[in-house]
Amino acid sequence: MGWPDLNLSSSTQVTLCVATGCGVVMAGLLTLRQLKKWRMKGKKTERRKDVVYLHGFQRMKFTPSLSGPCLKVETWLRMAGVKYEFVDASKSGQRSKYGQLPFVELNGTEIADSNIIIQRLARQFNADLDADLSPEQQAVALTISRMVEEHTKWTMYQYYFVDRLDLFTQLVGLPGPRIIHWLIRNRVSKMMQTKLYHQGVGRHSKTEVYQLGNADIRALSALLGDKPFLMGTKPTTVDASVFGQLAQVVYTQLPSPHRQVIINSCDNLLDYCDRIKDQFYPDWELLCAEGH
Ligand SMILES: N[C@@H](CCC(=O)N[C@@H](CS)C(=O)NCC(=O)O)C(=O)O
Ligand SMILES: *[C@@H]1O[C@H](CO)[C@@H](O)[C@H](O)[C@H]1NC(C)=O
């Protein structure tokens, strides 16, 4: 289809073409999230001094958050006894400066990334859960967190977001018509497959991925042994981190190789999750009742 003959000079036609192209791209960029952000901008929410505002993904039916890092920070805040309020970022459309969740606001300052959040809050509230650990124990704790957050987690993603996409709707509890579920599901899966490929886990066969994940879970079980918490009798930051990830497979109640190995041969991890849930989430059911 050509341009209608309006006797325009060729440079005007080029300008029009570019302008139209820009318009289409701009319209594409007007995503739902941006619309949400604009809508929220006018509504200035009140923020109190010394209260941590935790921005995370929406509540879920089986767990307060489907995001490991979000649940980790929330668990840490409870372990450390720091006053906080949860802000549903799926309503506000907000993300951190890294484009992710969680992030917190404290006294008008934004802190992003679960590890940085915990480090900063521990200092500002004088609530370091790891103060009594020896340097060696601190190193072990850090190593465990890294394994779970940077490896085990990906083997779970491979299962839920790629291999068993049929479980997606139950997992994330989407509202609305099925065609929308289908579109979101496929988009999320495509994104996840790219991430998994670059991370490396996604290059293995399913069987290999589940073996990798289950080896991590057995290692966690062996490290925990009969202790109530990973580093001994008191909860420390690594427990928040591990709980953030394990709670997803333990409480979501969808089948998975990770869940299977926990139930079949890691009783101590089940008790461990229940211990943390019972001690720090007396309101677990209430939080999940808000969930989708
Ligand atoms: N290193 C970050 C990781 C946070 C992260 O992976 N967040 C994911 C959800 S679990 C996220 O926000 N993804 C949304 C996106 O990438 O758009 C942390 O520990 O806080
Ligand atoms: C937050 O701000 C208040 C008042 O400005 C100050 O007293 C308090 O120490 C700050 N809290 C933290 C944790 O930095």
TrEMBL record:
GO terms for cellular component: cytoplasm. Residues 70-163 form the Thioredoxin-like fold domain. Residues 214-276 form the Metaxin glutathione S-transferase domain. Pfam families: GST_C_6, GST_N_4. Keywords: Membrane, Transmembrane, Transmembrane helix. SUPFAM superfamilies: GST C-terminal domain-like (SSF47616), Thioredoxin-like (SSF52833). It comes from the Eukaryota. The chain crosses the membrane at residues 12-32. The keyword Transmembrane helix applies. Gene3D superfamilies: 1.20.1050.10, Glutaredoxin. InterPro entries: FAX/IsoI-like, Glutathione-S-Trfase_C_sf, Glutathione_S-Trfase, Metaxin_GST, Mito_Protein_Transport_Metaxin, Thioredoxin-like_fold, Thioredoxin-like_sf. The keyword Oxidoreductase does not apply. Belongs to the FAX family. This is Failed axon connections-like. The lineage of its organism: Eukaryota, Metazoa, Chordata, Cephalochordata, Leptocardii.
